[in-house]
Amino acid sequence: MSISNPFIIGLTGGIGSGKSAAAARFAEAHDIHVVDADIKSRVVVEPGRPALQQIVDRFGDAVLQADGSLNRAALRERVFQIADERRWLEQLLHPLIREEIVRDLASAQSPYALLVSPLLVESGQYQMTQRVLVVDVPEALQIARTTARDQVPEAQVRAILQAQAQREDRLRHADDVITNDQDLAALHRQVDQLHQFYLALSTGAKP
Questions:
Q1: Is 60 part of any known ligand binding site?
Q2: R_g of the chain computed on alpha carbons
Q3: Which of 35, 49, 68, 192 qualifies as a cystine partner to 104, CB 3.0-4.6 A?
Q4: Is residue 2 part of a domain?
C-alpha cells in the first residue's frame, strides 16, 4: 500500500541513533507533519482498547501498572527473552499501529510528511513511503547512548538491537542517510539540507 498524498518520507534508525532528534528538527524548524509510530504503538494499547486485554490474557497482570495501563518495561523484558512471544505481539499490534499511522498521515498539511519508526524496515512500513531516510550510527555508540539515557543494562540494549533490523539491512533500504556520530549542530545541518531536497521532490521541482 502506497500513500501518494502527501509525499511521505520514512525516517528510521536503531535504538540510540538520534532519529527522534532528527524528527524534532524537521518538525520544529521546518513545520513538517510528523507521525511517530512509537506514539501510535502506545495509543493502541491504552486502557479500554481490545489489544491491551489480549496482552493481559497472554502475559498476565504482571504486565500492568497499578493504574491499569500497560507496563511497557515489563512487557519488553518478556518479549525480548522469547522470540515467539515477540512475534505474537508484533502480529497483534502492527496492523493496529498501521491503521493509526495511515489516519494521521492523511491529515498532513505540510508539503511532505515524516513517518518515524524504529521498525520501518522490519514491519514493512517503508512500503507506505516514497523515500527512506536512515539515521546511522556505529553500534558501540548506540549502546553507549541508550544505556546512559535509559539506565538499562547493556545486555538489554543488545537484545533490542538483535530484534531490530541490522544496520546493513536498514542502509540497503535507505534513499538518504544522516550520519549522527557528531554533535546536535551537525545533525541539524544535515536535516536542514535534506529539508530543502524534500521540498523540491514533493513539489516536483528539480532538486
A1: no
A2: 17
A3: 35
A4: no
